[in-house]
Amino acid sequence: MTQMSEPDHHARAAAGIDALQRWHSRWTGQWRTTGWWNAANALTTVISFIQRTGDRRHAPVIEKTFRAAGRLHPGFIVRYFDDNGWWGLAWLAAYDLTGEDRYLDAARVIFANMVTSWDDMCGGGVWWNQDRKYKNAITNELFLSLAAQLHLRSPNSGGSYLAWALREFEWFRASGMIGGSGLINDGLTPECVNNGKPTWTYNQGVILGGLAALHEISGDTAYIALGESIADAALRQLTSPPEASSPGILIEPGEAEMARARRRGDGSQFKGIFVRNLYDFYLHSRRPAYRDFMLRNARSIWDNSRNADNQFGLCWTGPFDTADASRQSSALDALNAAIAVAAELPGPDAPEAACLGTIRPSKEPWTISTMRLSSEDRAAGLGDCDSAMRRIAVRPIRAACAFNSASARSPISSAGRASTMSSFPVGASVRSSVFRNKAPAVASSIVPARPKSASCSA
Fold this sequence. Notes:
Blueprint: H1 9-21, H2 36-53, H3 60-72, H4 81-98, H5 101-115, H6 137-153, H7 160-174, H8 201-218, H9 221-237, H10 255-260, H11 270-285, H12 288-304, H13 325-342, E1 353-359, E2 367-373, H14 375-379, H15 385-391, E3 395-396, E4 400-403, H16 414-421, E5 429-432
């Protein structure tokens, strides 16, 4: 069977990032047209783009947001514990990219605040906000993911973050929020049973990031099995049907009504969060269906839900409805994922992947090493930075990849990669960093989208 040729997802994401950044306010550290928690997700999207491409044009937004948003809400803490969790994950992403301890410290402060919301009501779990009237899925998923990821980045924590991650996982699994359909509902009733409220896409996503981190820590495939059951249920039940003009595209519950009302709010952010976490989970699961899903959604966003200014709409099946920073950053999460997974596809047209990891053995200075992956590497199972770094016997946490199909540089051999990094001890942490060389060229002009007649699916 002939493999579909993938478009230049890098250039498409670069055009979308440029459009997103026109909403950023240097004075507030937020993105106009959207809210506080959405800003944390927009920042995470920008960081992911830099990690995937090495394109640093918008990297200054990290420090600007840290300073300005931190003045607005000291410690990035508000009365909503889920909002705090989004900022905690954003600063972990910033730490992965830059290696600056101030971002890791911010995430630790946020997590300590979230711990204060845990109590024995319903047998455990954290509350949604300081009113302490509702225990919901998303806040507890964020708590799990943040705890597990802090453990991976805190070798001297004494295991406290891992203890919290495992405690949360056991409570969440037994809470009843995973419904009979295999999807996660919004939360619990005052009587501590599943409230049957919508199965938002982001509730199916954040848990995948947490399970991926737990698998990274333990190697226990039970975490992968649970994640696959949730991801598979989402791909079956929260996508456009096979008979649709654009089948297999992610659809948010109530999406059609949101689009008709041209509503700005929480729901327009959710789908990108699902895809972002599905990508992290895919690095552990490796199910081809997840890769194909991410590529299919990225193509549909560009072809069906984009205006002439490279702004993206709510309905990824199309048509474009309206633009805001929430819709834009959500769609960009799918494009960012496509940049990475497209590099795994076989064939001479697949872009080479350049991987940059920052390795920091205990009490040693940062050291930079660059590797390149050829199509032969991918065919041998080295399709991304994560698997490549596993091959050379270092422990990956997150690696930055840039893809450049026009590169003239020769790939380093497997032996060359091993000798490049063999001086570092097994078990050294790998954290991502941006490229020190000039980022690959991005297309200067993008053909405007043609109008589509398809309607947004309900």
